[in-house]
Amino acid sequence: MKEEWRYIESNANTAAKNMAIDRAILVENSKGNSPVTLRFYEWAPPAISIGYFQGLLEEIDIDMCKKYGVEYVRRITGGGAVFHENELTYSIVIPESHKDISKNIMESYGKICGALIKGLRYIGINSEYKPINDIVVGNKKISGNAQTRKHSTVLQHGTILIDVDVDKMFSVLKVPNEKIKDKLISNTKERVSSIRKILGKYISFNDLCSPLKKGFEEEFDIKLIKGELTSREKNLADRFEKECFANKLWNHKR
Amino acid sequence: MNYKSIYKIPNGKLLKINLNLNDTNEKIDDIKITGDFFAYPEESIELIENKLKNCRIEKNLLMEKIIQTIKKNNIEFIGLDAEGLVDGIMMCLK
Questions:
Q1: B76: contact with A, CB 8 A cutoff
Q2: What is the pLDDT of residues A57-72, one digit of tens each?
Q3: Which of B6, B17, B78 to mutate to test the interface with A (most CBs of A within 10 A)?
Q4: Which is more confident, A139 or A232?
Q5: Which residue among B33, B36, B76 sits closest to A51, beta carbon to beta carbon?
Q6: Which member of A54, A132, A178 has the closest CB to residue B79?
Q7: What is the pTM of this model?
Q8: Looking at this predicted complex, what is its ipTM?
Q9: Which pLDDT value is given to residue A119?
Q10: How many helices (H) and strands (E) does chain B have?
Q11: Residue A248: CB partners within 8 Å, gap ≥ 6?
């Protein structure tokens, strides 16, 4: 009998709500109240999430965000700023003690990214894990990932680009040229790809869920059972949203 | 005076340092370490920032304080290391 994990397909949420839900699942899983969970979600309105250690004003052009109606939020995970529009975001919450989760953080990135890579293969995309936390096709990034470990529990979330408006992306994000100094590409914009660019056609969020789901089931040899957030998780998410992710003190803390 | 640096850690992430330096005694009044690296536990960076306050800006001294803090708190970095941190800080003065 295969191990069963909960699978949640969320509607699109605000930036603060999305980050609050991921944190709520992390806390409830760490207390033993919630199962291992894989969630797929979107962002509405479009939003930027920045890494926990990033400076908000260093990464984001607030005026451009206002112009385009783009929200922003600080994550509890490290890593870089991500523009969330026309993409699928996943989050996985799993105990650190799980047999398939290495104590070595880099190895666990590789394992979870392996599930995404298997999933992408189902839609005809050959991708590979590129340490530290990217998935690339050729030398172009199609997925960014970020992991934290708290209360002996792993939260990894990340994004798969379905379609990308690079000009809009790089007008709301501030990306210095130092970022790509050691990469043989002159322009940061050229580093980004998307499913649409690779396949030449648009694949919707809904059409992407099922192949990615299969990727996780195969990589971890598990069965995903569709479920919902528990009422504890919902209440906790409401609290985290108000106290933390929708709060200026949190988002502007660095 | 205020100094800034942006430093791409070799094989790592992008480190940004924002430094307030007392120019008479060359001690750090305030330092903000930001970037797209990973650090565990999450308070690691604040611990290091606090430890570096009032430290004279001198390579070996900075390295010693940072390594001490890493050891004491079991800090784990990904995309960042003590040497990179020191290089990023020293780069502010260039």
A1: yes
A2: 999 999 999 999 999 9
A3: B78
A4: A232
A5: B36
A6: A132
A7: 0.94
A8: 0.95
A9: 98
A10: 3, 5
A11: none
Asked if A4 contacts A35 with a C-beta cutoff of 8 angstroms, the reply is: yes
Going from N- to C-terminal start, the domains of chain B cover 2-91
Can you tell me the distance from the alpha carbon of A223 to that of A54, in angstroms, rounded to the nearest whole number?
Answer: 36
Supply the CATH classification number for the domain A3-251.
3.30.930.10
Is residue B77 within 8 A of residue B71, CB to CB? The reply is no
Q: Give the mean pLDDT of chain A.
A: 94
User: Which CATH code, of 3.20.20.100, 3.40.190.10, 3.30.390.50, 3.50.50.60, is assigned to B2-91?
Assistant: 3.30.390.50
Chain A nearest C-alpha distance from B31 (Å): 11
- Identify the bridge partners of residue B21 per DSSP, sorted by sequence position: B28
Residues β-bridged to residue B3: B19
Which residues, numbered 16 to 75 in chain B, qualify as contacts with chain A under a Cβ-Cβ cut-off of 8 Å?
16, 18, 32-40, 42, 45
Residue of A183, A9, A189, A203 whose CA lies nearest to A125: A203
Average pLDDT, stretch A15-22? 98
Is residue A105 within 8 Å of A149, Cβ to Cβ? yes
Q: Return the pLDDT at A229.
A: 98
- Across the range A68-91, mean pLDDT stands at 97
- Is the pLDDT confidence value at A117 over 60? yes
Model confidence at A183: pLDDT above 70: no
Give the pLDDT confidence score for residue A181 in this predicted structure. 47
Helix (H) or strand (E) holding B63: helix B59-72
Residues of B in Cβ contact (< 8 Å) with A149: 40
